[in-house]
Amino acid sequence: MAARTLIQIPPLSRKGDVIEVRTMIAHPMETGYRPGADGKVLPRNLIRRFSCTYDDGASRELVFQAELFPAMAANPYLTFPLLVTGPGTLVLTWEGDNGFAQTETLLLRVA
Amino acid sequence: MAPDLRRSGFDFMGPSTQAMQRDDMQNPAMLWVQDGAALWQSKSGRSALACADCHGDASTSMRGVAARYPAFDAPSAGPLTLGQRINQCVSQRQQAPVLAAESRELLGLESHVALQSRGLPLAPAQDRRLDRFLQQGAALFAQRMGQLDLSCAQCHDQRAGQRLGGSVIPQGHATGYPIYRLEWQGMGSLQRRLRNCMTGVRAEPFAFGAPEWVALELYLARRAGGMVVETPAVRP
Amino acid sequence: MTSAMPSGASPDAGPVPGLSRRTLLAAGVGAGALLVQTRSVQAAALPPELEAAIAAFTGGAPVREGRVTLDVAQLVDNGNAVPVTVSVDSPMTAADHVVALALFNERNPQRDVFTARLGPRSGRARVSSRIRLATTQKLVAVARMRDGSCWSRTVDVIVTLAACIEGET
Q1: Is A70 in contact with C132 (Cβ distance < 8 A)?
Q2: Is this prediction's pTM over 0.80?
Q3: Which of these, B66, B81, B143, C104, could form a disulfide with B114 (CB 3.0-4.6 Å)?
Q4: CATH number of the domain that residue C62 is part of
Q5: Backbone angles phi and psi of C69, in degrees to 5
Q6: Is the pLDDT of residue C17 over 50?
Q7: How many domains does chain A fold into?
């Protein structure tokens, strides 16, 4: 089942705007250092990488990428900037331990 | 008129934690609300009913509802918390298995419903039939417990604003439940928080679903009557 | 309880050169907004493991204090989720931009927090997140620029444990 996500971009922007893409995804981000109730260390279960690709219909370009480590809080919140060059789609991908992979796509509406 | 000296736990938090609660995009609890909104629409149980089938759009039908809870339930002749009422519907109307305490489903539905009261004043039911449960709750609040031999009142009435360890003691008004608690790195009910308090004073917490919790919740709702509903709140 | 500038405020222009914390306090300057600058500590005070992690990121290039702003509360409510914003004073043009940003900690089990790749398509250099801090410690934000230069900001953060350590039921 897909993890719940919250994603926010301005509903409409203009070419040349620098917008903030705000993201959050439900994930425990288990560090691999934390003992459980029985005293045994819980296995690491982290989202390791986040990327954002901009697709204008003709080509795709990686516009942001982050590598995440155990020091990231649970239900990771990440915001990053984007220079608007035109309308298109933003493809957000989270990848991590245990084959975790999730992609969310949203429309970038440009006036 | 005497000034209202009651303060929400929100006021005792640092600015960045307050910002987490104020901004729905920053509030991790909204992930659970999303779950709740989806569950509201999904058919379940032998009746194959969704909450929406009887209650329609939650933003209208559930507006103000959570603010009145705990409410008196005639069939059981006692108070019910919002979570208990939801489970009553799940088992009796949807004819589905009850949702486990602190489960994603129950917290999701509870926070989705209670969100519809956000910004409204807490208006707990004034039903006289609740009186003896209220007295029980008040007595529990004032009762010393545990190896540390502390009552809720000693910290949260008498010493609110002072410090315990590095933390400021809040007044303990349950205005934002279910909450996303940073200490839990997740969502939880008022009962979960109260269990933590009892463990904190080294008392054996009451059993899950025990009537003591409901009585306490009822007392806390009265104690915070008129304060603004913040659900889903963020707390340290 | 004071806090650094909220995210969304315009990027910090950098510390006022030549002014120490003592001078500012003596001048009776309000504590709020200027704490971002005065809290930064000398990079030379970092433990070897932290220096090594930073060097791995910079490829051994020399790192200077400046151009980077690290917004984080001075005293956090809970170490499990500490909001931070790292921003860099940069035009983010093709010729002059931040190539990568990284955040490091001093006392968690592991030094890295996150690393972010930016570029001219970013438009501005600012990343916000929430991190875990195991205890009171230093945080170091480092930026690698297109011209190979590296810049950093180091900040002290105080983390207290919850008053009642409870079981997880």
Answers
A1: yes
A2: yes
A3: B66
A4: 2.60.40.2470
A5: -115, 135
A6: no
A7: 1
Could you tell me how many helices (H) and strands (E) chain C has, helices first? 3, 9
ipTM field:
0.96
Q: What is the pLDDT of residues C100-125, one digit of tens each?
A: 999 999 999 999 999 999 999 999 99
Kindly list the distances between the CA atom of residue B177 and the CA atoms of A71, B23, B172, C115, in Å, as whole numbers in the listed order.
Answer: 27, 17, 12, 35
Average pLDDT, chain C: 81
Are the beta carbons of B157 and B106 closer than 8 angstroms? no
In this structure, what are the phi and psi dihedrals at residue C62, rounded to the nearest 5 degrees? -65, 145
Q: Residue C26 has which token pair?
A: 């003596």
Note whether A63 contacts C123, CB cutoff 8 Å: no
Number of other residues whose CB lies within 10 A of the CB of residue B88: 15
Is the pLDDT at C37 greater than 80, yes or no?
Answer: no
* Token couple for A98: 């245990």
> Is A65 domain-assigned?
yes
How far is C-alpha C135 from the geometric centre of its chain's CA atoms? 16
From CA C41, how far away is CA C106, in angstroms rounded? 13
At B84-104, the pLDDT tens digits run: 999 999 999 999 999 999 999
Show the domains of chain B with their CATH numbers. Answer: 15-235 (1.10.760.10)
Window A:23-82, CB contacts with C under 8 Å: 31, 33, 37, 54, 61-74, 76-82
Query: In whole angstroms, what is the distance from residue C144 CA to residue C142 CA?
Result: 7
pLDDT tens digits along B167-210: 889 999 999 999 999 999 999 999 999 999 999 999 999 998 89
Please report the sign of the dihedral spanned by the C-alpha atoms of residue C38, residue B164, residue B121, residue B20. positive
Task: Tell me how far apart the alpha carbons of residues B224 and A73 are, in angstroms, rounded to a whole number.
Answer: 32
Q: Does A77 touch chain B (CB under 8 A)?
A: yes
pLDDT (tens digit per residue) in B28-58 = 999 999 999 999 999 999 999 999 999 999 9
pLDDT at C167: 56
Question: Domain for residue C85, yes or no?
Answer: yes
Active site residues of B: 197
Domain count, chain C: 1
Q: Which residue in the set A22, A73, A75 is minimally distant from B31, CB to CB? A: A75
CB-closest option in B164, B199, B236 to C77: B236
The proportion of chain B whose per-residue pLDDT surpasses 70, expressed as a percent, equals 100
Helix/strand/coil (H, E, C) string of A21-37?
A: EEEEECCCCECCCCECC
Beta bridge partners of B71: B80
Asked whether residue A63 is assigned to any structural domain, the reply reads yes
For residue B127, give both structure tokens.
């039903």
